Amino acid sequence: xxxxxxxxxxxxxxxxxxxxxxxxxxxxxxxxxxxxxxxxxxxxxxxxxxxxxxxxxxxxxxxxxxxxxxxxxxxxxxxxxxxxxxxxxxxxxxxxxxxxxxxxxxxxxxxxxxxxxxxxxxxxxxxxxxxxxxxxxxxxxxxxxxxxxxxxxxxxxxxxxxxxxxxxxxxxxxxxxxxxxxxxxxxxxxxxxxxxxxxxxxxxxxxxxxxxxxxxxxxxxxxxxxxxxxxxxxxxxxxxxxxxxxxxxxxxxxxxxxxxxxxxxxxxxxxxxxxxxxxxxxxxxxxxxxxxxxxxxxxxxxxxxxxxxxxxxxxxxxxxxxxxxxxxxxxxxxxxxxxxxxxxxxxxxxxxxxxxxxxxxxxxxxxxxxxxxxxxxxxxxxxxxxxxxxxxxxxxxxxxxxxxxxxxxxxxxxxxxxxxxxxxxxxxxxxxxxxxxxxxxxxxxxxxxxxxxxxxxxxxxxxxxxxxxxxxxxxxxxxxxxxxxxxxxxxxxxxxxxxxxxxxxxxxxxxxxxxxxxxxxxxxxxxxxxxxxxxxxxxxxxxxxxxxxxx
Length: 551
Description:
The chain is α+β, with helices and mostly antiparallel strands.
């Protein structure tokens, strides 16, 4: 085919040389271009299957067998295909692509230059791609797990590694075990200069003990293996180690030092949207979406990142936070939260702490001030501004959360009873809320207790000590609380009755005021009427005075 093409080109060039002037010369040049294009089209179309098979036979990067159901080529070097299937040496499917295309340099096709550098562009559509990355972030492809067909909230949080990798071994032994594994993808340092497009794909990622399944992948990769990789990655909902609504990653990976055995470095902007806190182990039933925006830099295998965390709302037992925002720092699986602020029941919160992605252990410290007790307790009769210091700690188990701290208040009231201050300590573990050293300071009395518990909604109280400023001391036990409760109910009812009476008095005064106003308006109208009658009598009297009688 190539020999025939050369003969045709030489014949046309001879004809052009015989007609160097005028229209015939131009026509000859155009004829040459047309013939070349047609020849390339014939070569590409007829040889597409042969080219594909020969490339697959010669390539050494992909371990196993790659086949396609149908293939079609254009004269510009673009080859489209359907039903691409990649299987490993054991016959297991590594990759299935319903449709896609790739582009090669036409001259490489003509000269049979079947190297990795001949591939200029690759597009995969609706594919399921499974990526396995080792501790140094070296990429390999592997077979999908059953999780790719599960709902995202059922995807396993951690992958199941081979038995050899779970045994107690040194880091060197573990790395040696990884090296012995048969890799499906071997780069071997070949120069690659191409663009990769992923359209509406699904991605499963294994990395250390982290596992993700991502949907709606639309990505553009511009790769020059001697220089850098440019990435514009977009994903929809994802599940696994974390559950979220979406992810965007954009930036570059510097590859210039790889030839000199240097690890690649990155500079990326990462946006993780709508993360479910419970999927991270942050509480058993906390599903308020969290968003992270960070800039990641450093070595690809050990990146560091700094950015912001935000949540419109955060609901935890007995507390609701709004406009949560703070700084976050990432390094080696640790997330450090700094300068976190939020609003809580007309008060404010300042917090900080640490969380580990792999162990899911965390510790957070918070200080809240100016909390409106009437909003927090949904009780209008209890109005006291409260300040709280609290610690949240978990070793990693979802229900292992422990919360403890201290609280104090400024002056306030309970119904009509003025309160000078309240102080105490609290702890909460597995739905068991306990209060200790609680003191309610009134004007002439202090009420204290060392035992107050709420277990699954049931209240248990220990001894209640009431001490007057004059030295009198009363202790109530057990059923005495029923009497105290009745007395407080009576006080509450009397207070509410007093409020109703005050409201009725206010309405009566309003009605009385309106009545007086109406009476005044009536008096003014009556006075106006009398004045009008008087004026009429005066007019009549004047007329009568003007009448003359003849004698």
